[in-house]
Amino acid sequence: MSKKQVKRMYFKKNIGNNSGKVKLNEIPITTLFEYFISDKKIEGLASRTLDDYYTHFSYLMDYLQSELVNTEFKTSIFKGYIAYMLDEKQLNPVTVNVRIRTIRAFLRYCYMQNYIKDPIHEQFKPVKTIEDTLESFTPEEVKKLISVIDDKTYKGFRDKVIIFVLIDTLVRCSELVNIKRKNVDIRSGHITLESIDTKSKKTRVVPISTKTIKLLKEYLSITEDFDSEMLFLTYEGTTLSDNTVRKNLAEYGQIAKINKRVSPHTFRHTGALFYILNGGDPFSLQKILGHTDMSMVRKYIQMTNTDVKKQHNIYSPLNKVFK
C-alpha cells in the first residue's frame, strides 16, 4: 500500500467521517489547529488574520506547556487560561478578548466537526471591557502632524498623501497598502478597494475629496516611473508595508509631540468623527467604513463634551422655535 493510500485511509478514519455520533480518536491539539487553519484558508481569510490566529494559539500553548489531545478538552482548562491572562499576566481585557475569540472559533470548529463531544465554546464568553476610549485627533493636532512632515522629500510627500487618504477615506492600514494605481479614479473622485483586500471580503468604493484628489494626482505623476501596479511605494519602488506606515506615523507623532496614539486606526476614528461633526449622516458613514453593524459605527464617533456642546449650539431644538 502506498503512502498516499495510507494517508487517505487515515484522513477518512480520523477526519472525513464526522457525521453523527462517532468514537473520538485521540488527536493532538496542534494537529486539530492545523485542520482549523486549513478550513479558514478555504474560507478565504487574509494571511494577516491567519498569522494572528497562529500567534494567539501560541499563547495558549505557552500556558498549557504540553500537548493536549481532544479527549482531554475541558471547559475548566480554557476558563483557567482566561483567568491566567487576566490575573497573572494582567493583560488588558481588550487583548484577552482578541485571544478568546480565536480560541472560541477553534473550539467551535472542533465541536462542529465532532472532534470533541461538548460545545465548550458556549461555556465561556468574552470578558466585560470598559467602553473603547480611543481618542481622536483634534483638527489642530492633525495640522500639527502634517506640519512636521518634510513634503519636499519623496518619503515626506508620500506620507503626507497617506495621511490625507487615511483621514479622508477612513480605510484600514491593510487596505491602504494594497491599493493599486488602477483603483484610483481621479476623474470621478473615488478609490475602489478590492474584495481580496477588505476585512469583509466585499469590494468597497470610498469617495475622496478635492484636496486629496489634488495630492493623489501629483503623487501618481511622481511615481509613474516606478512602473509598479501598487499605489504606495518605498523610495526604491517596492510595495510599502503596513508596519512601515505605522512606524512612520508614530515617529511623526513623537516629533509633533502629540500625546495620543498616532496610528492608522486613530486616523480612522478621527475621520469618522469629523464626518459626523461636519454634518455627514451615520448611514453613509457606515458604508464608507465598510461595517454591516451600526453598533460598530457608533464606536467610531465618540464625541467629547466640547464636540457635543458645539453640535448642540448648532442643532438645539430651541433654534426651531426662536429663529
TrEMBL record:
Domain of life: Bacteria
Residue ranges crossing the lipid bilayer per the database entry: none
GO biological process, one term: DNA recombination
Keyword Lyase attributed: no
Positions of the Core-binding (CB) domain: 27-111
SUPFAM superfamilies from the UniProt entry: DNA breaking-rejoining enzymes (SSF56349)
Segments forming domain Ubiquitin-like: 189-253
GO MF entries: DNA binding
Family stated for the protein in its record: Belongs to the 'phage' integrase family.
Protein name: Integrase/recombinase XerD
Ranges for domain Tyr recombinase: 132-313
PANTHER family: INTEGRASE_RECOMBINASE PROTEIN MJ0367-RELATED, PHAGE INTEGRASE-RELATED
Signal peptide feature range: none
Keyword field: DNA recombination, DNA-binding
Database matches in Pfam families: Phage_int_SAM_5 (PF13102), Phage_integrase (PF00589)
